[in-house]
Every structure is written in C-alpha cells, then in structure tokens.
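ok so dumb question maybe but i'm new to this and my supervisor (M.) told me to 'just get the structure for Small RNA 2'-O-methyltransferase' and walked off. so i did the thing. is this what she meant?? sequence i used:
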Amino acid sequence: MLLTITATHRPATDLGFLLHKHPGRFQSYDLSFGEAHVFYPEASDDRCAACLLLDVDPVGLVRGKGTDGGGGALLAQYVNDRPYAASSFLSVAISQVLGSALGGRCKDRPDLASTPIPLEARIDVLPVRGGERFLRAVFEPLGYAVVAERHPLDERFPEWGESPYFSVTIAGEATLSDLLTHLYVLIPVFDGQKHYFVGEDELEKLLARGSGWLASHPEKDEIARRYLKFRPSLYRQALARLVQEEQPTEADAQGEERPADRAEDALERPLSLNDQRLGAVLAAIRASGARRVLDLGCGEGKLLRELLKDRQFEEVVGMDVPIRSLETARDRLRLDRMPERQAARIKLIHGSLIYRDRRLEGFDAAAVVEVVEHLDPPRLSAFERAVFEFARPLTVVLTTPNREYNVRWENVGADRLRHPDHRFEWTRQEFRAWAERVAVSHGYTVRFLPVGPVDEAVGPPTQMAVFERGE
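this is what came out, is it supposed to look like this??
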C-alpha cells in the first residue's frame, strides 16, 4: 500500500523538514506487520513528493495463530487484500513513522508546521465501503477536493463489474498535521476493518485525534460507528462526548448570557448597535431580491425572527455549531406554536462554517453576522471555501467589528478585543484587503458599508461587506 504526500508551496522541499525525513535518503523501518519505507520520487523548490510504502507480510501476521473457522477461514487469512489495500496498518505506520509530523512538531520550521499550505495526498488503493458518495461525504466537508478512480474487479472480465477499490487523491490547504490526522482517523473508516482489538483505548484515540473537527462533521455518526467497529457501547459513548464537545458553557446551555457577552452588549447598547447591525443586514438582503436566505452562525435567532416577518423571504435556514444555540433559537422563535404555513418557511440545521455542506447550496443570499472574528485565523481559508466556493449564494452580507473604533470605548482601548472569544479583529484596511481578495478569488464583486455612527478618525464601530456573485 502506498501513500504519497505532495507539497507545492515554495520551497516545496520544506516538506522534508515537516516530515522529519530527508529528501535525499531512502529510509526503512521495521514494524510488527512488515516494513515501511519512506522515499522522495520528486524534490524541487516547486514540487516535492514523499512516499510512505508499506510492505506487509501476510504470512507473518497469521503464523502461529489458530483458527476455529474451518478451512475457508484459514484460507482467508492468507488470501486477502491486507498487503495491498490501505487499512489500519497504514494508520499505524503514519503514527509510528511520521509521528512528529502527525503531532505538528517541527523544530526547524515551527511556523510552517502550524500554517495551512497547499497539500495533496494520494492513496493507492483504498477500499471504500459505501462507494464514491461516502468518500466525498467524508473528505469534502473537511475542505478537500476529491478525485477518485474506481478499479474494476478484473480488467479481463468487465462483466464482473467494479470493485470497492479506489485510487484516491485529496487536495486542499491544510497543515500537514491536520492532513495526517484526517488520514489516520478516516482510512480505517473506509476499510471497515482493524487488525487489532477495539476497546476503550480506541474510543479515547478517536476523541483525541478528532478534537476540533469531528464533532461538527456532518458524517460524525457514521465515522464513529465504523471507527469503533460498530460496537454499540463505544459508539454511544463517542457520540455523547462529541455532542458535549459542541455544547457551550452552562450559562449558554440555559439560554443565559455569559459575563463576556453582557460586557460586549453593555459597550454597544448606548449606540443601539445590534439593532442597527440587524437592520443594515436585513436591508441589504431585501435589496438583493433574495427569496431563499441563510443565516450562518444564527445564534439565538434574532436575525431569523426579523427575516420571518418579511413575506419576501420564502425559505429561511439558520445554521450554527452548538446544539444548545439552535434549541434556544427554536424556543425564542416559538417554532412549536407557529402556524403550519409559517413554520414551513424556516428550518434550523446543525453544521459548521469551515466544512463543505451541500445543504447550503442553491440559496439566494447568506448572512454572516459577527461570526468570522470567532474563527481561528488558520481556519479562515476553510471558511472562505465553504461559503464562497461551495455554497456560493448569489449575495453574501458579512459584518465584523472595526478594531480601530475600540479606542472610543474606555474599557477596551487600542490593545484589547471587544470579546474574549474573538480570535482577531480587523482594521478597515485589513477587512477591505481580505474581502477584495476573497471576491476576486471566487467570482464576486464587493462593496463596503458602515454600520453605526461614523467617527471621522476611526470609522464606524461595525464594518459590513456585501458580496454579489457575477453571472
């Protein structure tokens, strides 16, 4: 079985530092099930490819082991796809041979190890139980472009049909650690088998390696079920803990505001800034002529409530990550008491803005209100692709704080952010540069509007961009 990882950033040979494997050397490692070899078929400043080749010894795997399944079971131990098809053996090799890269450690290039770069991984071959649809459903929400080549059972006998084996290439911008982590977890999910006992240790391993991405993955149920070999007790524990990971603090779960939220509201209340922000967003969406609208990061549903009041909007969908936020929105909108025709216009869905989600495609407009500043900067590229490349609404209305205005609040100042959960706040110039780059990259035009009172020196407290897709 063969895994090939290719980097195209310059200099691409930095991949050798990230993998802790020198491009000029052929290296071999003894593993319990055979040998692993690492080599570079290509290494230049423009493109560098590293291969992890596993030479599995199928006879050694079963030598000395008894069988209670009769002759057929004994034969199956020797005649199988274990030496050739990617499986849990490859995950173990990634962990043992590329462990430092998997953990995101790189002494020589620490900044690069934590920076998303263009990467491509090719797996020859991957047994996919569930076919290409499942393959795409697993990798595409993680931000990868997928190319899958299915192989026939036997080229000499086409009437036998296609096999479950694919040559799979995934490509996208990610840290090497994230890419290897996704492969480590997901390869056994496609294969549906593991060569070792699955117990509590595997549950903890899944939760540890899935931290930060699995809880909000649309296929997390099936991923957990397959990874844990359909063991009901482990699977139920995994899902319960994944749901818990998504939940906010206890105050949020009860529909209450956190102290930090109250502090931000106290800053903005004298300006009626939240009302002005919602009014500006609503006006921009209404002016676009949209009839089907997304509220991405809908929170407790304030914008949803305003959208529902306007009969122009025939379909309104609110999406957020925390389940409790969606429950609070449902309660505050009183969906259970709403007339049937009114309730048919609105839908609340669980999902994340950093993964591709086909449920978001085909809408006229999307609102992203005070959301991007809560994303870690390395995840912005995934957000951009999820919204502007994959969902591609005709209009996107996005608001975010103007950091320059913070000096007008005594309790904030120039060196602090407005909310402890903000990962960053843009100046007007930074926001304009980001928005214009996104627009050009994805075929949109963009215009900028102030929200709130405009200070001659530092601008408005909130800045808004309206993206419109070119036809």
